[in-house]
Amino acid sequence: MNNLYITRQRTRRVPYAAAPRGLTPGFTLIETLVALVILSVGLLGVAKLVLGSVHADDSAYMRGQATQLAYEMLDLMRANRQGAFNGYYLLAPVNNNCSAAVCTQQQLAELDLYNWQNRVAQALPTGVGTVATAQVLNDVSATITVTWDDSLAQAAFGAGAVAAVPMSVTLESML
Fold this sequence. Notes:
three-stranded antiparallel β-sheet
């Protein structure tokens, strides 16, 4: 039988300093700086997208608040249905003290309007709420409008500063 012997061949190691120029391992400083600049530009693009998303989220949040406030007034009018039928929600809002004594339908409508308009002003930038009613046969139609300034959110999508951009939510329903 043949005996095979495995022998190890010695390789000569070349010192790092003596290696040829094209075979140098690792990255050069220029390559690292170029990669850093490309990464920075990409991160700036991502930051711009996130900023636009935040402004869109703010605009949607305000629209949701306005819708909720419009439905709140509709619920208040349905709770004081006879006051709405009599047109008391068209009067000026008054801060009546209904906790000390029982309010009339008119006083309750005025207090509802006062509290609701304060909540609209607090929840939305330059928020204004209006109520209109109309007699339709044996029922009353209510139109509730909530208006606010959405210029900050809209400026993020346009070029530069934007003048006041009034946004509104209008709710129409039969009481």
